[in-house]
Write a structure and sequence with these properties.
71% of the residues lie in helices and 2% in strands. By secondary structure, the protein is an all-alpha fold. The protein has a single domain (61-322), classed as Ribonucleotide Reductase, subunit A (Orthogonal Bundle), CATH 1.10.620. A two-stranded antiparallel ribbon has the order 1-2. Helix 6 packs antiparallel against helix 7. 45% of the residues are buried. The model has no long low-confidence stretch (mean pLDDT 94). Bound molecules: fe (ii) ion (FE2) (2 copies). One fe (ii) ion is lined by residues 114, 180, 211-212, 215.
């Protein structure tokens, strides 16, 4: 057995989130405990275990000064840290409900990944000057509405499939398609937005994105293998997809994301000199984008990624049901 770091967990070689989630093929059997300890603990996290970034990826002084840019980051990381925390709690049910040891081991590693994402998102707020002793109350205040209106309903949906309906595969589909699938493009946007304005945060986002590629691809392969072995499960899965879409339409996530995008808009123009010609995606300068346009691009990325993953899973009929744009 080779002891090298798998390229998809190597900081320099790993693909971007959208590219990796659309094109890589990883299974729970491949991503076992040894893979995680070698590839993630000794690869992705090398030199980044404490904060999620290295000393060469600093928190600039302007991120510690009151203003819209700092407010935007506080809101973004406060909410995302709670999303990861609540995700971790939900994943405990997946460890319990896993139908074989390979899946159980994989979800144990995913649970650890999400707990760590919550930690590094949270701790960046301390790097931005939030007193450590006020951290949890500050985050609870920032995220209360988002937690109640967005996170609780979607995580409840996943946990209900597992705990109340005993449907492990359905719950994996909910996490992979609805929860991670929709949050991932926001994570991709975050990495690109903060690249020059807050290098520490961009590195933290990059590290989390490397993990999310694994979560999305392995989750998809679990659903795919089950559907291949049990074609009769297809109808049940489509029912979950339809209920997931209905739920997503009722959730006001846009309202919360737009608040931080508007703050970001004001903040980036105050620091326009740092961005100059920086392109947030090919051919588009970040300074020329607006909140609506960035949100629309994240939705377009979600659709593109979902189309690729759903086809791989054997659920191409779900693409139109889940399409956002
Ligand atoms: Fe995560
Ligand atoms: Fe994840």
């Amino acid at each position: 057995m080779t002891m090298s770091i798998p390229p998809e967990t190597d900081w320099e070689q790993a693909p971007g989130l959208l590219d990796g989630a659309m094109n890589l093929d990883l299974t729970a059997q491949q991503c076992d405990l040894a893979y995680w300890f070698r590839g993630v603990a000794q690869g992705t996290l090398k030199g980044r275990t404490e904060t999620g970034h290295t000393a060469a990826e600093p928190t600039p002084e302007h991120m510690r000064v009151d203003g819209p840019l700092r407010d935007a980051q506080m809101l973004e990381l406060g909410c995302r840290s709670v999303a990861e925390e609540q995700g971790t709690r939900a994943l405990a049910h997946y460890v319990v409900g896993a139908t074989n040891v390979a899946e159980m081991d994989f979800f144990a590693t995913q649970l650890m990944d999400e707990a760590r994402h919550s930690m590094v998102f949270r701790n960046h707020l301390v790097e931005m000057g939030v007193p450590a002793e006020d951290l949890h109350t500050t985050i609870a205040g920032l995220s209360a509405g988002y937690r109640e209106e967005v996170l609780d309903p979607i995580l409840d949906f996943a946990v209900r499939a597992l705990r109340d309906e005993g449907d492990f595969i359905g719950a994996v589909a909910v996490f992979t398609i609805i929860i991670e699938g929709v949050l991932a493009p926001a994570a991709e946007l975050s990495e690109r937005k903060w690249n020059l304005l807050d290098p520490a945060a961009s590195a933290i986002a990059r590290g989390a994105a490397i993990d999310e590629i694994r979560h999305l691809t392995v989750g998809s392969s679990i659903v795919r293998e089950h559907l291949l072995a049990h074609p009769e499960y297809h109808a049940r899965l489509m029912d979950i997809v339809r209920r997931g879409r209905k739920l997503w339409d009722e959730i006001p996530d846009r309202k919360y994301i737009m608040v931080r995008e508007h703050l970001f808009q004001e903040g980036m123009h105050q620091h326009a000199g740092l961005l100059a010609d920086y392109e947030v995606w090919p051919g588009k300068r970040l300074l020329e984008t607006g909140p609506e346009e960035r949100y629309a691009m994240a939705e377009a990325w979600t659709d593109k990624m979902a189309a690729a993953r759903l086809a791989y899973m054997g659920l191409p009929e779900a693409v139109d049901i889940l399409r956002l744009t």
